[in-house]
Amino acid sequence: MLPIMINTKNKYALIIGAGNVAYRKICKVLDHNMKVIVIAPSVCKKIEELLVKYSDAIKIYHENYTKDFIVKMEKEFEFFNDISFVIAATNNECVNSKIVYDFKKYKILTSSITEAKEIDFKFVGEISRGDLTITVSTNGKFPGLTKKIRKEIETDFPKEYSEYLNYLSKERYKIINRENDEDIKKKRIEELLKISYEKYILLTQEGNK
Ligand SMILES: C[C@@]1(CC(=O)O)c2cc3[nH]c(cc4nc(cc5[nH]c(cc(n2)[C@H]1CCC(=O)O)[C@@](C)(CC(=O)O)[C@@H]5CCC(=O)O)C(CC(=O)O)=C4CCC(=O)O)c(CCC(=O)O)c3CC(=O)O
Ligand SMILES: NC(=O)C1=CN([C@@H]2O[C@H](COP(=O)(O)OP(=O)(O)OC[C@H]3O[C@@H](n4cnc5c(N)ncnc54)[C@H](O)[C@@H]3O)[C@@H](O)[C@H]2O)C=CC1
């Protein structure tokens, strides 16, 4: 599995199933500003609340998944080509496997909350501090361990880490734009990295005095 960052701007996630696990996946894709299409005959309470809160971002079809649904969507849904990926998130392993199988033909990336073998991607644990993203994965071996490690890392990276990154980034671009000598440029960028997060915080505190 190759860990990459996918541009999800103006893209749809198709989530089939609307239970507790689907809820977590929906929250995650909404967090990344995606739009969501949900297909499920019954919807858990937490998702019902999301439907109210994010009425512009979520579209729901109250029905069972069937292959005919893809054909119907392809014909009727003008944004079909904007679907980035599908997540089979029902509590029925056979249905989830069927979804993975069916969507492969449409060349849409497919994942499942129960199937591990044929899927194209898996979700990862994620720590975000502005533009800094740290991800954790056990390749499906132990999601509970992913959660534990994610929490441990979170304490090492305070929220202000995003400001530290912004500061370093600005300084880095100054060096890149002003320095023509490649060796000096490289050296100055290395020196910039010697400013630790702790040192940056001290400097900003002194600056505010
Ligand atoms: C393969 C994968 C597919 C996918 O969903 O993409 C998958 C599969 C399964 N998860 C299961 C269980 C749990 N999953 C979590 C939590 C998370 N699961 C997530 C991702 C993934 N889960 C993918 C690979 C992740 C990796 O590589 O490690 C995270 C990272 C992302 C997210 O969902 O947002 C999020 C952590 C978020 C965080 O806190 O950082 C917890 C903890 C909790 O809920 O508190 C439990 C209960 C404890 C336990 O069992 O470990 C089960 C067993 C179901 C059963 O018992 O039958 C399966 C199915 C199976 O294993 O077959
Ligand atoms: N990947 C993960 O992170 C995790 C996966 N799991 C697995 O997920 C499954 C349970 O998921 P929950 O969300 O708790 O289940 P749930 O029972 O809360 O929800 C199931 C949802 O699937 C829908 N559904 C059922 N058949 C359908 C069909 N044919 N078409 C469309 N929708 C259909 C139901 O209407 C309901 O909305 C379990 O099998 C468990 O092994 C459990 C924990 C974490």
TrEMBL record:
Question: Entry's InterPro entries?
Answer: Met8-like, NAD(P)-bd_dom_sf, SirC_C, Sirohaem_synthase_central, Sirohaem_synthase_N
EC id: 1.3.1.76
Q: SUPFAM superfamilies under this entry?
A: NAD(P)-binding Rossmann-fold domains (SSF51735), Siroheme synthase middle domains-like (SSF75615)
Write out the pathway annotation from the protein's UniProt entry: Porphyrin-containing compound metabolism; siroheme biosynthesis; sirohydrochlorin from precorrin-2: step 1/1
| Catalysed reactions, semicolon-separated | precorrin-2 + NAD(+) = sirohydrochlorin + NADH + 2 H(+)
Q: Which domain of life is it from?
A: Bacteria
State the top-level EC class.
oxidoreductase
Checking PANTHER family in the record gives: SIROHEME BIOSYNTHESIS PROTEIN MET8
What is this protein identified as? precorrin-2 dehydrogenase
Q: What is the lineage of its organism?
A: Bacteria, Bacillati, Bacillota, Clostridia, Helicovermis
